[in-house]
């Protein structure tokens, strides 16, 4: 499978607890932090839920 790079570009302050837990489960804690994941349906679903807080690059 292909890899995707996910970068946190907006803060999770004043966001719902669900969105904060989703960011944490993706491994994103700090602003500007980038993580790599396989583009499985589970990961893509999580990215879709917080798409307004992250940027995604296909690798």
From TrEMBL:
PROSITE patterns, alphabetized: RIBOSOMAL_L30
A Gene Ontology molecular function term of the record: structural constituent of ribosome
The keyword Ligase appears for this protein: no
Record has Ribonucleoprotein as a keyword: yes
UniProt-listed Pfam families: Ribosomal_L30
InterPro entries: Ribo_uL30_ferredoxin-like_sf, Ribosomal_uL30_bac-type, Ribosomal_uL30_CS, Ribosomal_uL30_ferredoxin-like
One Gene Ontology biological process: translation
Large ribosomal subunit protein uL30-like ferredoxin-like fold domain sequence ranges: 4-54
GO cellular component, one term: cytosolic large ribosomal subunit
Keyword tags: Ribonucleoprotein, Ribosomal protein
Family label: Belongs to the universal ribosomal protein uL30 family.
The protein's assembly and partners: Part of the 50S ribosomal subunit.
Name the record gives this protein: Large ribosomal subunit protein uL30
Organism: Halomarinibacterium sedimenti
Gene: rpmD
